[in-house]
Write a structure and sequence with these properties.
- The structure is a single chain.
- The chain is 0% helix and 48% strand.
- The chain contains no helices and 10 strands.
- The chain has strands at 18-23, 29-35, 39-45, 51-58, 75-82, 88-105, 111-122, 131-133, 139-145, 151-157.
- Strands 3, 4, 5, 6, 7, 8, 9 and 10 form an 8-stranded antiparallel beta sheet that branches.
- It is an all-beta fold.
Amino acid sequence: DFDPGEGTTSHRAEKARAFVSRYSEHGEFRWVRVFEAPYPARVMTDREGSTYIGLGYPSDSWGVGGTDACPDADGCGQIVKVDHDGNTLWTTAFCGAEASNTIASAANGNIFVTGFTLGSVDFDPGPGRDLRQAEGGNEILMSSLTPDGTIRWGGLITGPGYLDEAMDITVGPE
């Protein structure tokens, strides 16, 4: 039960799921979102009260809204932006990424994301392709999105190890 008050808001997890909920500053339940994502990563809230959720889906899982955003990829990292009331504003997919691990926002509203991949990632979610190939093992994914979720740029950071993964990201004043 996500509602600590008199009401009841229950969700049952029959398989791996991510739950994200919002409460008032007084602990009053506002909303809960359930994602069929076995790899929930990070949650961040911006100054306007919107929430950004980083998720990861293996190739045998469904993305946000019950559709496979990356049907030809081995995995799909996604960033979901929801408004103050929990309504989805946009979803951006990184086809081929295993997860979207960290999220940060800049003062101008641009979003920065890290994640990881074992293969190739498409940084063009439209009909075109902007494929970047991992060199072996986990490689760090880094990308920037506009305030409306459009990918500004993206790339992979490779290292000598097998398990390269970014665990946090911060954005400076500029």
